[in-house]
Every structure is written in C-alpha cells, then in structure tokens.
C-alpha cells in the first residue's frame, strides 16, 4: 500500500470510529510523524551506504562507512519502535 493510500485508509477509518479519543488520535499523529522522519533518515543513510560501496568497489577508501551503517541501524531500530507502537495500538483497539 502506498503512503497516500495508507493515509486515506487511516483517515476514513478514523472518521467512522466515533469512540476514539483526541489522545488516541494525537498519538497516531505522533507515530505517523515519526515514521515520516525515519523515512527521510533511511533515505540519507541508504545514500551514504551506496556512496561508500561505490568507493569500496573502485578500491578507494571509505572512512565513514561504519558511521553510515550505524545511521542505518539506528533508523531501522526507530522504524521497529514505531511499527511496534502501531501494532500495539491496533491490538488494544481490537480488544
């Protein structure tokens, strides 16, 4: 599902659910904001990794490769935390 499709689906689902509180809606907005931020971070880190791999393939030195991989790992962990928050919220709503 595309990002736009997900947002449209989420907005329609939220409009149908009159029992949701403002706090629950605000939490979901925070999660979406975090996910979009992480998306940017993953793009930056991926670009850095691609540049480092290109340098390594041409026998050049890539002194910042470890830092780029660390950035990528932090971004992946942030995605996991956000996904866990979304999953936990959906489990609570189903109960």
Task: Kindly describe this structure.
This protein is mostly helical. The protein is built from three helices and no strands. The chain has helices at residues 3-16, 22-57, 65-94. Helix 2 packs antiparallel against helix 3. It is elongated, with a radius of gyration of 18 Å. The two termini are 25 Å apart. The relative contact order is 0.11.
What topology does this entry show?
Elements: H1 3-16, H2 22-57, H3 65-94
Helix pairs in contact: 2-3
Helix content: over 70%
What would you report as the Rg, rounded to the nearest angstrom? 18 Å
User: Which residues form runs of ≥5 with pLDDT under 50?
Assistant: none
Strand content: under 5%
First and last CA, distance: 25 Å
Largest sheet: none
Identify the overall geometry: elongated
Give the helix tally.
Answer: 3
**Average pLDDT over all residues:** 75
The count of DSSP E runs of length 2 or more, i.e. the number of strands, is 0
Order of helices and strands: HHH
Briefly note the structural class of the backbone.
mainly alpha
Brief rundown of the structure:
With 95 residues, this protein is mainly alpha-helical. The chain has helices spanning 3-16, 22-57, 65-94.
Task: Please name the defining characteristics of this protein.
95 residues; mainly alpha; elongated
């Amino acid at each position: 599902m595309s990002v736009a499709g997900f947002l449209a689906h989420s907005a329609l689902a939220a409009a149908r659910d009159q029992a949701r509180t403002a706090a629950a809606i605000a939490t979901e907005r925070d999660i979406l904001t975090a996910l979009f931020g992480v998306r940017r971070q993953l793009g930056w880190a991926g670009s850095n990794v691609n540049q480092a791999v290109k340098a390594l393939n041409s026998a050049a030195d890539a002194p910042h490769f470890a830092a780029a991989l660390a950035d990528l790992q932090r971004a992946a962990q942030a995605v996991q935390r956000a996904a866990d928050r979304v999953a936990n919220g959906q489990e609570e709503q189903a109960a």
